[in-house]
Specification:
Layout: H1 4-18, E1 22-27, H2 33-43, E2 47-51, H3 54-63, E3 78-82, H4 86-99, E4 104-110, E5 113-116, H5 117-125, H6 129-176
Antiparallel strand pairs: 1-3, 1-4, 2-3, 4-5
Helix pairs in contact: 1-3, 4-5
Length: 182
């Protein structure tokens, strides 16, 4: 029979897996408590970094319907549960791992799809969601401005042509009449 404390730990981990968009599994051997605290702070409020027992984490992941992580639960393991922007969290982990080589990214999962360490690094190289949305909005605005200019062009060309024709008619009608006598 399972002990109540282990059952509670599995239930907590299962809820974290279900409530997050992504999870990244890391090895943390060699990091001090102060470094782990710094890592948690650098990941922000949208990401929770938890050290957990491999067996309990594996059970919780399977109960939550997350597959493909079993191979990563060997040795010292901690999981970053990401409920916010996965790109920002991946960047935070990558940058921290550069400064602290003891942190090793093993792999993870994003929206139910298992990711390798290389794929998480590629994810970290992406621009943030806000930057990508701003670029998309800028591109859409430019397209609309181009379309508006295209629709206005025939109208303005017509106005210039009509004005030139009116000027020509005035010149011709003024040149054919005799000058007024004084």
């Amino acid at each position: 029979m399972a002990r109540p404390d282990k059952s509670a730990a599995v239930a907590d981990l299962k809820n974290r897996f279900e409530g997050s968009h992504a999870a990244v599994v890391t090895a943390y051997t060699g990091l001090t408590v102060a470094q782990l605290k710094e890592l948690r702070r650098s990941l922000g409020e949208q990401t929770q970094y938890r050290v957990a027992k491999n067996t309990l984490t594996k059970i919780a992941a399977n109960e939550a319907g997350v597959s493909g992580l079993d191979e990563f639960f060997k040795g010292s393991t901690a999981v970053a549960f990401i409920s916010g922007d996965p790109v920002e969290a991946a960047k935070g982990l990558r940058d921290f791992a550069k400064d602290n080589p003891a942190l090793v990214i093993k792999g993870g999962v994003l929206d139910g799809k298992a990711l390798s360490a290389e794929e998480i690094t590629k994810l970290a190289d992406l621009e943030s969601r806000e930057v990508l949305l701003a670029k998309l909005a800028g591109g859409m605005k430019a397209s609309m401005a181009k379309a508006a200019a295209t629709f206005q062009a025939p109208l303005s060309k017509f106005v210039r042509t009509a004005d030139a024709l009116r000027s020509k008619v005035e010149e011709q009608s003024g040149a054919g009449e005799p000058a007024p006598a004084e």
